[in-house]
Amino acid sequence: MAADGCVSIPIRVIPRAKRSGVGGEREGRLLVRVAAPPVGGKANAAVVAALAEALGVPKRSVEIVRGVTSRDKVVRVAGVAADDPRLAALR
User: Fold this and answer.
1) pTM for this structure?
2) Is residue 72 a contact partner of residue 12, using CB atoms and an 8 Å limit?
3) How do residues 47-71 score in pLDDT, each as one tens digit?
4) What is the CA radius of gyration of the chain?
5) Burial class of residue 67 (count of CB atoms within 10 Å of its CB; 0-12, 13-18, 19+)
């Protein structure tokens, strides 16, 4: 866990998926599938919701810190350590 109690996670977003969900890995990035389209911030909101649900943290604990307009993003999650079993189970 970082000094500020957060972990940064590189993710790859797949918008307009049949179902939203978190799991798998591609090129070292956690895959996040969302049903929402990448328009008007809908996909980003869905990414935050999907990660929060998958990790069991409130949505306010998940923040997109890099790549807001890209499929490749970095998110910061408060309250989850880098070696947390919940994070390892997603990969």
Assistant:
1) 0.91
2) yes
3) 999 999 999 999 999 999 999 999 9
4) 12
5) middle
